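Anyone up for a design puzzle?
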């Protein structure tokens, strides 16, 4: 019986390669290559059964993708186009070993608050420091010429008259007589008045050590992002300069009035302990220690009364110059006017003990509850701390890293102090002799200061040795600039610390993250809304079919 739907035989076509292929496929079950990957829109059309019918969610994807692109473009243009033009401010740091100019750039953000552009900040240093002109104070102003020329190259000429320049001298000048200080400052004022920048006479001054510490604390917490937040979450700062050391942090202890400094930032009040320890900077302390050794005041290091000589435990053995290379802070001779004989020992433990004796001189005169450094009140350290300047330089020299423990300084100092001077010179041939001589003392002094005096345990991890946070330098000059600009703002605009731009491309990173999130959202929605498709091979028809799978 014939099937009703059977086809009538047709005349055979001439043989061809195409026909041969079609006939051979069913016999051997060769499958043609799978269809090429469908584009996103072709898949939707195939599933819907009509090329003109857009399924649900089909319009969402291009809309969200377009919104992502538009958002990226808007935020990029917004970040590059602040409300006001870029402006500048200059702070000149008159330090003990050199003078440094800082050129800061900022824009006036929306609402009137200034926004620092740390990517445009620049610095230059000149030596010697202003205190080196104590014998010729009228020449001090000349040392600013090169620095001011640097500033003029960084600030557009059209803004010179609107750019404030402030000279703030620190411990180097604080060591001099008031009369000499004023003569040096007056020489500098004459130069600053004709610099082309905006300047007033009272903008050149010697700042107090406490103010220097507060400025450094502001700089550190500005960089970390805690300024304006909970006082207990702030970070303290300990600076070890050349002539002085500063300790500043938020303390919950009742503070004597002379050590208490109240700082208002926005709606937050900070009760800071801040004090500068003059003569406790690394260089001056080293010179003072050598002078005490020469005078015989550190009796434990004297040899015998009959022999006018002493042991210097902070200078590596084998160094023949001893006192000749590093000029002592105070020259002291023996009773008969002769220099004592010098024996270099290079002993870390003895150097640390000598440094501690120096730090504790005058403790018998303490009139407070406790005096951790000489006769000066210092409350118990609270929270985390940043240790800057010579703390950082010493850590870097020994290769200890920013998170080093004080026990690491002990081991590094013992190795260094115990080496012969000839070996040290060969190993560190790239360093000047004066610099290399200080590292035995500096490692000992740091341990004596932080552990033996301030009570930081040798294995504590709450101190970071660094001169910057991310790309923000931990320099008190930045804190001074922030404070002076903040003083001119209304209270509602005193929360501008979050608006740092340019320094580490953070704006572009933020734009990328936002755009990537929007694009990911678009992709997720397309996967969720689009139909699930399945490709099968129809043996009877000899081709692939795309079908929709019900969820």
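Challenge accepted. My sequence:
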């Amino acid at each position: 019986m014939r099937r009703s739907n059977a086809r009538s035989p047709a005349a055979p076509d001439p043989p061809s390669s195409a026909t041969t292929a079609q006939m051979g496929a069913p016999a051997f079950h060769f499958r043609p290559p799978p269809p090429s990957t469908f584009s996103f829109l072709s898949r939707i059309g195939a599933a819907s059964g009509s090329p003109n019918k857009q399924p649900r969610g089909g319009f969402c994807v291009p809309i969200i993708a377009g919104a992502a692109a538009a958002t990226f473009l808007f935020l990029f243009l917004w970040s590059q186009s602040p409300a006001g033009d870029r402006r500048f401010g200059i702070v000149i740091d008159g330090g003990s070993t050199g003078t440094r100019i800082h050129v800061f750039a900022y824009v006036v953000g929306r609402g009137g608050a200034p926004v620092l552009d740390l990517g445009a900040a620049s610095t230059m240093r000149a030596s010697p420091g202003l205190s080196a002109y104590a014998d010729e104070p009228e020449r001090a102003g000349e040392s600013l010429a090169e620095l001011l020329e640097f500033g003029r190259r960084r600030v557009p000429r059209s803004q010179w008259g609107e750019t404030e320049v402030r000279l703030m001298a620190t411990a180097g000048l604080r060591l001099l007589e008031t009369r000499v200080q004023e003569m040096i400052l007056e020489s500098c004022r004459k130069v600053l008045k004709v610099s082309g920048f905006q300047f007033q006479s009272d903008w050149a001054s010697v700042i107090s050590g406490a103010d220097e510490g507060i400025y450094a604390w502001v700089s550190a917490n500005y960089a970390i992002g805690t300024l304006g937040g909970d006082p207990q979450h702030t970070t303290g700062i300990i600076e070890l300069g050349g002539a002085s050391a500063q300790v500043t942090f938020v303390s919950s202890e009742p503070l004597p009035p002379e050590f208490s400094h109240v700082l208002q930032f926005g709606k937050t009040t900070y009760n800071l302990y801040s004090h500068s320890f003059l003569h406790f900077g690394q260089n001056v302390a080293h010179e003072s220690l050598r002078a005490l050794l020469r005078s015989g005041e550190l009796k434990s290091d004297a040899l015998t009364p009959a022999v006018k000589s002493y042991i210097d435990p902070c200078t590596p053995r084998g160094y023949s110059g001893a006192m000749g290379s590093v000029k002592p802070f105070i020259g002291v001779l023996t009773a008969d006017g002769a220099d004592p004989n010098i024996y270099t020992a290079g002993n870390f433990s003895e150097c640390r003990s000598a440094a501690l004796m120096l730090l504790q001189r005058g403790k018998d005169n303490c009139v407070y509850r406790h005096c951790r450094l000489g006769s000066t009140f210092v409350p118990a350290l609270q929270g985390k701390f940043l240790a800057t300047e010579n703390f950082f330089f010493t850590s870097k020299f020994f290769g200890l890293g920013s998170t080093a423990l004080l026990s690491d300084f002990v081991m590094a100092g013992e190795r260094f102090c115990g080496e012969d001077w000839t070996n040290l010179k060969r190993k560190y041939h790239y360093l000047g002799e004066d610099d290399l001589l200080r590292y035995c003392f500096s490692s000992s002094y740091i341990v004596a200061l932080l552990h033996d005096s301030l009570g930081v345990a040798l294995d504590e991890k709450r101190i970071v040795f660094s001169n910057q946070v991310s790309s923000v330098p931990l320099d008190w000059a930045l804190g001074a600039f922030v404070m002076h600009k903040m003083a001119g703002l209304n209270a509602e605009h005193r929360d501008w610390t979050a608006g740092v731009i340019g320094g580490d491309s953070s704006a572009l990173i933020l734009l990328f993250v936002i755009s990537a999130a929007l694009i990911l959202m678009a992709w997720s929605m397309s996967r969720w809304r689009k139909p699930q498709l399945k490709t099968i091979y129809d043996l009877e028809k000899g081709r692939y079919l795309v079908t929709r799978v019900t969820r």
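A detail worth pointing out: Residues 86-207 form a domain with the Nucleotidyltransferase; domain 5 fold (CATH 3.30.420.40).
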